[in-house]
């Protein structure tokens, strides 16, 4: 098993410079949660010249909408959602200093380019492993848009949350490089 | 004629919603464990191990396998000798969804209007209900909580008869390729070929109900499934899209006769959290 890098969130520019595609990390500290509906409100707030509900500089956004927390636990099942749906909103947030994102699935060329321009990193977490990932979340608090329910903005405390660097600030893309490594051409009719 | 109280249907649907979202079916778990052994990518192998571990945690802790507990797709096979009493069938199913999603602490992921206000209905209703009248005096209910990430990766194309088998294969493989990491691979690929546009997509969805990897009883179709699986696993997408030899656990193809002018092909992807649960009343 390769070494796993422990990292602290919020991130720093120096840390982002060190991270490379394929690095396995364990994230500890504080991350914010937002998905589709919250991003739509972020954009509306910025359009009106209003501030975002939290200071986004150097923060990590986790694209996630949890199940309700069982009695005595901070959160329910809590795995990543598809990051690609958030892409239209992301370059603007990166320009404001957003430093990291956790989600599942590929990012658009525009987002990858903005990550290079503004020095940010995108981590992929295991989609569909919500029961497992909930174990690494030690506290959860709704900080904005409570009326959105599962889509509200939350602040989480995470401890050794496992993720993999999927896009780094150098233009690397794990989805592309991983696919190329294992892609094969096979004859039209497969051998039985 | 056998009488069946729709309140029993409500109770059954409620229980199925909770159990489907917590307990990964044995055939899916077995397929994932086999994939963990077979996967060539070391990272892909570890990810598959974590997915198996997630299923164990969900079962042991009574937690949903995935936070996306889906839009609730309900398949009803109603025996023609069943007489339903005690209220409407659709209402009974939706009441079951309402109770299951509340009692099971499942995420409510349904909005009322698709392009306008998009207000959450707060109880995951309405369910998507497929009803079929069949011989007999039993009623079979299957609940499939279908996640948005994989349902978004759905495709349909009217091919020309000239495109034929090869054209269908190219289309289906391309659908999985362009879906990339989004549908949470390894996926189960549901394919419907034939019928009309609506029929083809219904077939693709029904194909997902088959035990993972069980071949179509028709030899030609089973051979197509085999070839498609090989082609799809050669794409290199791998577990969660980070590269590997396991992009799909299985390809299930269902067919239906079609018009002389048509070759409809529908693709409906199922993520690795392939949750279904059935009961017969």
Q: Helix-strand pattern of chain A, N to C?
A: EHEHEHEHEHEEH
Overall helicity of chain A: 25-40%
Helix content of chain B: 25-40%
The end-to-end distance of chain B, rounded to whole angstroms, is 14 Å
Radius of gyration of chain B: 19 Å
The name of the CATH superfamily of chain A reads: Fe-S hydro-lyase, tartrate dehydratase beta-type, catalytic domain
Strand order of the largest sheet of chain A: 2-3-4-5-7
Rg of chain A computed from alpha carbons, rounded to a whole number of angstroms: 17 Å
Average pLDDT figure of chain A: 95
The low-confidence runs of chain B, each spanning 5 or more residues with pLDDT under 50, are none
Strand order of the largest sheet of chain B: 4-2-5-10
CATH level 1 name of chain A: Alpha Beta
**Assembly annotation:** heterodimer
The CATH architecture term of chain A is: Alpha-Beta Barrel
Poorly predicted runs of 5 or more residues of chain A: none
Count of discrete alpha- or pi-helical segments spanning 4 or more residues of chain B: 8
Average pLDDT for all residues of chain B: 97
Structural class of chain B: alpha/beta
How would the blueprint of this fold be written?
The complex is a heterodimer of chains A (192) and B (281).
Chain A lengths: L4 E5 L3 H6 L5 E10 L2 H12 L12 E3 L27 H6 L4 E4 L5 H10 L2 E4 L5 H5 L2 E8 L8 E15 L6 H9 L10
Parallel strand pairs in A: 1-2, 2-3, 3-4, 4-5
Antiparallel strand pairs in A: 2-7, 5-7, 6-7
Chain B lengths: L1 E4 H17 L3 H13 L3 H20 L9 E9 L2 E4 L3 H15 L24 E7 L4 E8 L1 H4 L2 E6 L4 H16 L7 E9 L1 H11 L11 H15 L14 E11 L4 E8 L6 E4 L1
Parallel strand pairs in B: 1-3, 2-4, 7-8
Antiparallel strand pairs in B: 2-5, 5-10, 6-9, 7-9
Helix pairs in contact in B: 1-4, 2-3, 6-8
């Amino acid at each position: 098993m390769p070494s796993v890098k422990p990292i602290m969130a919020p991130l720093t520019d120096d840390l982002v410079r060190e991270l490379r595609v394929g690095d396995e990390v364990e994230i500890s500290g504080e991350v914010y949660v937002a998905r589709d509906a919250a991003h739509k409100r972020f954009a509306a707030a910025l359009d009106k010249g209003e501030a975002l509900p939290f200071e986004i500089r150097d923060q990590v956004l986790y694209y996630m909408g949890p199940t309700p927390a069982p009695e005595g636990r901070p959160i329910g099942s809590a795995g990543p959602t598809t990051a690609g749906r958030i892409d239209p909103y992301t370059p603007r947030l990166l320009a404001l200093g957003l430093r990291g994102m956790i989600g599942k699935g590929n990012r658009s060329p525009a987002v990858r380019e903005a990550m290079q321009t503004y020095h940010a990193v995108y981590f992929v977490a295991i989609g569909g492993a919500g029961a497992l990932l909930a174990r690494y979340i030690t506290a959860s608090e709704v900080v904005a848009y409570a009326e959105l329910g599962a889509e509200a903005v939350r602040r989480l405390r995470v401890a050794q949350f496992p993720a993999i660097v999927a896009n780094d600030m150098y233009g690397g893309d794990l989805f592309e490089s991983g696919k190329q490594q294992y892609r094969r051409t096979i004859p039209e009719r497969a051998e039985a | 004629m056998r009488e069946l109280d729709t309140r029993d249907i409500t109770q059954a649907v409620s229980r199925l919603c909770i159990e489907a979202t917590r307990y990964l079916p044995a055939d899916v778990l077995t397929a994932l464990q086999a994939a963990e052994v077979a996967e060539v990518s070391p990272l892909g192998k570890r990810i598959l191990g974590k997915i198996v571990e997630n299923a164990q945690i969900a079962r042991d802790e009574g937690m949903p396998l995935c936070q996306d507990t889906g839009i609730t797709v309900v398949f009803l096979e109603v025996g023609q000798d069943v007489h339903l009493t005690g209220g409407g069938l659709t209402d009974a199913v939706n009441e079951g969804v309402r109770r299951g999603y509340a009692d099971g602490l499942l995420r409510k992921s349904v909005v009322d209007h698709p392009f306008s206000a998009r207000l959450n209905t707060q109880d995951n209703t309405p369910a998507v209900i497929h009803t079929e009248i069949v011989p007999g005096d039993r009623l079979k209910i299957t609940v499939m909580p279908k996640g948005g990430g994989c349902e978004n990766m759905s495709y349909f194309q009217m091919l020309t008869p000239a495109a034929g088998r090869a054209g269908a294969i190219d289309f289906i493989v391309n659908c999985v390729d362009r879906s990339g990491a989004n549908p949470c691979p390894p996926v189960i690929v549901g394919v419907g070929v034939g019928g009309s546009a609506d029929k083809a997509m219904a077939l693709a969805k029904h194909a997902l109900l088959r035990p993972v990897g069980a071949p179509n009883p028709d030899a030609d179709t089973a051979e197509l499934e085999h070839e498609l699986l090989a082609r799809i696993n050669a794409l290199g997408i791998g577990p969660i899209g980070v590269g590997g030899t396991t992009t799909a656990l299985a390809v299930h193809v269902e067919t239906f006769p079609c018009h002389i002018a048509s070759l409809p092909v529908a693709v409906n992807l199922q993520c690795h959290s392939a949750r279904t649960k059935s009961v017969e009343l």
